[in-house]
Amino acid sequence: MNKINNQFASIEQIAGQYLSQGAVKKEDAAADVSFEEILRQKQSRQVMEQSSLKFSRHASMRLLDRNINLTEAMNARLENGVRQAGEKGINESLVLVDSLAFIVNVPNRTVVTAMDQTETNSSIFTNIDGAVII
What is the pTM of this model? Predict the structure, then answer.
């Protein structure tokens, strides 16, 4: 590096010295992660997104208003029911789990609404094309 009276000759020289070292460090860090590792991470994230159900705001409010708490076992059974409905080509499904009824948009894996036994006494469900009883 050319110095003039203990100073750098230009801003470009100092910028080039310090910026090029930072760029090399970033490239080295990126090179440590293989394509295979990144692919596996993306695939596992997709599997998790596909396996988990979403609850619409309406369904979440229904569960809160009625103090309905889904256990892990009940949630697993609900997911199983949605999976079975998808295998049969159902788009809008009624899934009955114990004394709870869920209307689920199967392609989006979204619970649209939830009802407990007191609301299901009328036994009339509309806008569904299939039902799964778990």
Answer: 0.61
Spatial CB neighbours of 100, under 8 Å, sequence gap ≥ 6: 68, 74, 114, 115, 116, 117
- Two tokens at 131? 């039902």
Q: Token digits for 126?
A: 């509309």
3 CB-near residues (< 8 Å, 6+ apart): 9
Question: In this predicted model, what pLDDT tens digit does every residue of 81-122 receive, in sequence order?
Answer: 999 999 999 999 999 999 899 999 999 999 999 988 777 667
Task: Give the CA count within 13 Å in the CB-facing half-sphere of 20.
Answer: 6
Domain range annotation of the chain: 3-47, 52-133
